[in-house]
Amino acid sequence: MTQTDAPVDAESPRVTPALLRWAESMCGRRLAGVHHDRRGNRPSDARFRVANRVFDSARLAHTDIAVPTLGAFRAVTGLEPEEQRVYEAAGRWYVTLFGDRAVRAVDLDDWESPVAELGVRLVGPAGLPVEDADGRRELRLLRVGARRPVAGDPLESIEARFALERVAGWAGGASLRLCVADLVQGALIEREVDVNRVLDAEVRPWLAERVAVIRARVADPTPQPGLECAHCRYVAGCAAHA
Ligand code: SF4
């Protein structure tokens, strides 16, 4: 990785899965706002409401070492009827895909990780880390309603690479089963990875390249109005909407 001199703290620029994915095409002003953690209007979490409920239920299904059961995916409050049906279907797929594995969820208890070599914070979900009674580790990325199909190598997933770097402190030095599951389509891909080797050989060089792209875009924060304005927390004060 490229070395930087600045220590990483709560004020350091942040990198999210969305920035990594959309660095080339995202509006420059919005990208700069996210990267520098500028305050903006709080975005709605409606798009992630079902996925968040599914994740919480899956995590609670593994409070102790146990296989997941449908009882963990009971009716929840705050969902529209259509969302409730998606939630229940996702729960059924979770039990189908992971029902033979007794594991305990590992609480990493944070939402961000510093990457000192790049002078940034990784801010965003780290998947669902779990381990079985023998200490074997697994990292589960649970998709609900994703447009991209689950196929091929789990490490092709930006979210999986991001999550693997985020859990490096827990998983480093061991092997881990990396899983990406689509809980709407009922698809699962998985791969055993030597965490340190994959981080050094694949994830960190890729991350350094993507951060370089983000920094190059931040240098020209010109507004680029388009469809993403509908989800932008930086509309206030944007010259494109003056
Ligand atoms: S409102 Fe639109 S043009 Fe303005 S910063 Fe947000 S995405 Fe860019």
Key descriptive features of the protein:
7 helices, alpha/beta, single chain, binds iron/sulfur cluster, five-stranded mixed beta sheet, 242 residues, globular, three-stranded mixed beta sheet
If you had to describe this structure to a student in words, what would you say it looks like?
The structure is a single chain. The chain has one domain (14-241). Helices cover 34% and strands 16% of the residues. The protein has helices at residues 17-22, 28-35, 49-61, 81-98, 158-166, 168-171, 195-218; strands at 14-15, 104-105, 112-115, 120-123, 128-131, 137-143, 175-182, 187-194. The strands form two sheets. The chain has a five-stranded mixed β-sheet with strand order 2-5-6-7-8, with helices on both faces. The protein is globular, with a radius of gyration of 19 Å. The protein starts with 13 loop residues before the first strand and ends in a 24-residue tail after the last helix.
Helix content: 25-40%
Strand order of the largest sheet: 2-5-6-7-8
Sequence stretches where pLDDT stays below 50 over 5 or more residues: none
**What is the H/E order?**
EHHHHEEEEEHHEEH
Structural class: alpha/beta
Sheet of most strands = 5 strands, mixed
Overall strand count: 8
Instruction: Output mean pLDDT.
Output: 90
Beta-strand share of residues = 15-25%
Which small-molecule species are bound to the chains here? iron/sulfur cluster
Radius of gyration: 19 Å
Shape: globular
Domain count: 1
From the N-terminal CA to the C-terminal CA, the straight-line distance is 41 Å
**How many separate helices?**
7
